[in-house]
Design goal:
375 residues; 9 helices
Length: 375
């Protein structure tokens, strides 16, 4: 009898040991090797003719779209909320660090919706979110000289639904993340940051002059200071999501060769025919013509809409954007696709379910055996 019990214990211990080894292997693959394997696909497959990707004068730009750092209010209570926030932060921190060291960008652009509760958070909570953002997730090593640009999204300053934009929200964002509309020059490229969040809704205004007057205030300095021939427009909403007249006003006056946007959480590529937009604008407003101090006319503006980098947005595909710009204005662009975190979490659930199912089944069988002995 003792021999049988010992053999039974040995079998259970051996099974437990095998399960633990299997679990450790799954964790190592999920949290390390899967990311390394994913990184092997981070390549520039489409390069303009004559462009040298490794030229020392090139500018490397990394795009971070809609990270939406999770807050404390809209998440479940402890302990579930604590666990979900930790996992979301961990995923963002790990993937950002991996992309950062792989690409080694000169400029990093955050395309808005930085904080999920940025518009509604109380002041003390906002400071806590900002500390997590810079100190725990999107940290830059001291030896890397990287320029960081931040744009506001509707989650940061309001502007969608009943969450209205206020001067207080705008001032708070600019205090912690910098000016919302400005020109930032890096070497031979002008990055034109434009806050288009107030102009996302299609609601009718008394006159489009309201938009043009506000645009005059926001981009007057951009137009005057944009001396470089290579101009990249940066905005949170996709250009096709704003009214045609507003899009025409932007592209005709600023004349960017490229635009990078976000907001809709998925990738997209669009080519905007600037000449056609100019004709449509003149048809809408025959007495006015959009003025520009920038000489020349670009036949088109190429827009790249960057997908979200956060799995909490519910998208199947997440990525960071990466672009290389050369001195001639040519651009190579790709996406650093990320592992599917929900698939990884489901994998953990299945693995945990194995011993749970085993012990539940064992308990049921044991209980039935005890009942049968009583009868």
């Amino acid at each position: 009898m003792r021999l049988l019990i010992s053999r039974g214990n040995l079998r259970r211990r051996a099974g437990f040991l095998i399960y633990c080894i299997f679990l450790i292997c799954i964790v190592c693959y999920t949290e390390y090797f899967e990311y390394i394997w994913q990184r092997t696909g981070w390549k520039f497959t489409e390069v303009p003719p004559g462009m040298e990707l490794d030229h020392p004068d090139n500018i490397k730009v990394m795009f971070v779209a809609d990270p939406q750092l999770q807050g404390n209010v809209d998440e479940p209570r402890f302990p579930i909320g604590t666990l979900t926030r930790w996992d979301s932060d961990f995923y963002l921190q790990k993937t950002f660090e991996l992309a950062l060291h792989h690409f080694e960008p000169d400029v990093i652009v955050f395309l808005g919706d930085l904080l999920d509760e940025g518009s509604s958070a109380a002041e003390d909570a906002y400071l806590t979110y900002k500390k997590r953002f810079f100190k725990k997730i999107f940290t830059i090593p001291k030896h890397m000289n990287v320029k960081m640009l931040f744009l506001p999204g509707d989650n940061d300053i309001g502007g969608e639904g009943i969450d209205h934009i206020t001067d207080k929200k705008v001032k708070r964002f600019e205090e912690h993340f910098g000016t919302m509309s400005e020109v930032v020059t890096y070497k031979y490229v002008d990055f034109l940051k434009v806050n288009l969040v107030p102009w996302m809704p299609f609601r009718s205004l008394e006159s489009e002059k309201v938009f043009r007057e506000r645009l005059d205030q926001d981009i007057e300095e951009l137009v005057l200071l944009s001396d470089n021939k290579i101009r990249i427009l940066l905005a949170h909403p996709k250009l096709s999501s704003i009214k045609v007249s507003r899009k025409a006003e932007l592209l005709i006056r600023l004349k960017p060769q490229y635009a990078f946007t976000a907001h809709f959480h998925h990738e997209a590529y669009l080519e905007h025919d600037v000449d056609n937009l100019a004709k449509r604008f003149e048809a809408l407003y025959p007495d006015e013509r959009p003025k520009s101090r920038i000489q020349g006319m670009n036949p088109e503006t190429k827009e790249f809409s960057v997908p979200t980098c956060s799995y909490r947005m519910g998208m199947k595909e997440m990525a960071y954007g990466a672009a290389i710009v050369d001195i001639n204005g040519r651009i190579a662009y790709t996406l650093f696709w990320l592992p599917h975190r929900y698939d990884q979490l489901y994998r953990y659930m299945y693995i945990i379910a194995i011993p749970v199912a085993y012990y539940v089944l064992r308990w049921i069988v044991g209980k039935r055996a005890r009942l049968s002995r009583r009868w």
